[in-house]
Amino acid sequence: MILIPFITVPLVWTLTNVIHNLVMYLFLHTVKGTPFETPDQGKARLLTHWEQMDYGIQFTSSRKFLTISPIILYILASFYTKYDATHFMVNTSSLLSVLLPKLPQLHGVRIFGINKY
To answer: Which of 1-10, 13-22, 26-35 reaches the highest mean pLDDT?
Structure first.
């Protein structure tokens, strides 16, 4: 069933995946600091939300959940787009854009100096 004309089911799933990943990337990997005063004397102002989560400890349950959720959405989007090449490439690049910053090797790394300050 199509509620909005000219928007197909594969397009809806791809848009859902891309918008979710974009919002999560912006929230977790670009926003720095905290919305409240912290006792760390300003050290958190240089860290993103992902880097502050669980005091920087890798592979905790909350980090695993936030890593697995875009993967599950990617699998669903790929299935409902019937693995169409265009949708598959868009969904794959969107998934990689949120998974790569979550790697432990990239903790605190600013590629090309982007978001350094």
So the answer is: 13-22
In a domain, 2, yes or no: no
Domain total of the chain: 1
Residue 105 half-sphere exposure, CB side, CA atoms within 13 Å? 3
Query: Is residue 1 in a domain?
Result: no
Find the angle CA(84)-CA(70)-CA(21) to the nearest 5 degrees.
85
User: What is the number of alpha carbons within 13 Å of residue 117 lying toward its C-beta?
Assistant: 0
Whether 88 is covered by a domain: the verdict is yes
Residue type, 66: L
Residue pLDDT, tens place only, 24-61: 999 998 888 877 777 776 777 788 888 888 888 889 99
Residue numbers of the domain that contains 49: 9-32+43-108
